[in-house]
Amino acid sequence: MLYVFHVDTGTMMTCDMNLALESVTHLKEHIQRTCNIPCDKQVLLVSGGESLDPDSRVCSYSAGTDTNPIFLFSKSVIESTTPPSANVELVSDAAIAKKL
């Protein structure tokens, strides 16, 4: 799996690993289809703040794992006057204990 952390909502997206062999532009198009964020409004970064070059292959960056995901920011959210809302999943303590 290829992991992309959507910073604006605090959610982790998982993508098909085959996207790692494609260009960053192709990944942006996939994100546009799944998240409704236009390609020109996406900012993709790796840990350390390096921006992903649209013409490079995703696999040329050492990122996209569950412990080191690609970070997605939406320029639309950054430019908006309304702050983003977090995607919160409420679960009981018993449900958490079952997962452990």
TrEMBL record:
Question: Does this entry carry the keyword Repeat?
Answer: no
What biological processes does GO assign it? autophagosome assembly; autophagy of mitochondrion; glycophagy; negative regulation of cell population proliferation; piecemeal microautophagy of the nucleus; reticulophagy; ribophagy
Q: Which GO terms describe its molecular function?
A: molecular adaptor activity; protein kinase binding
Compartments (UniProt record): Cytoplasm, Cytosol; Lysosome; Nucleus; Preautophagosomal structure
InterPro entries in UniProt: ATG11 (IPR040040), Ubiquitin-like_domsf (IPR029071)
Its biological purpose is as follows: Involved in autophagy. Regulates early events but also late events of autophagosome formation through direct interaction with Atg16L1. Required for the formation of the autophagosome-like double-membrane structure that surrounds the Salmonella-containing vacuole (SCV) during S.typhimurium infection and subsequent xenophagy. Involved in repair of DNA damage caused by ionizing radiation, which subsequently improves cell survival by decreasing apoptosis. Inhibits PTK2/FAK1 and PTK2B/PYK2 kinase activity, affecting their downstream signaling pathways.
Main location class: cytoplasm
Swiss-Prot/TrEMBL keywords: Autophagy, Cell cycle, Coiled coil, Cytoplasm, Lysosome, Nucleus, Phosphoprotein, Transcription, Transcription regulation
One GO location term (cellular component): Atg1/ULK1 kinase complex
Q: Which CDD domains match?
A: Ubl_RB1CC1 (cd17060)
Source organism per UniProt: Oryctes borbonicus
The entry's protein name is RB1-inducible coiled-coil protein 1
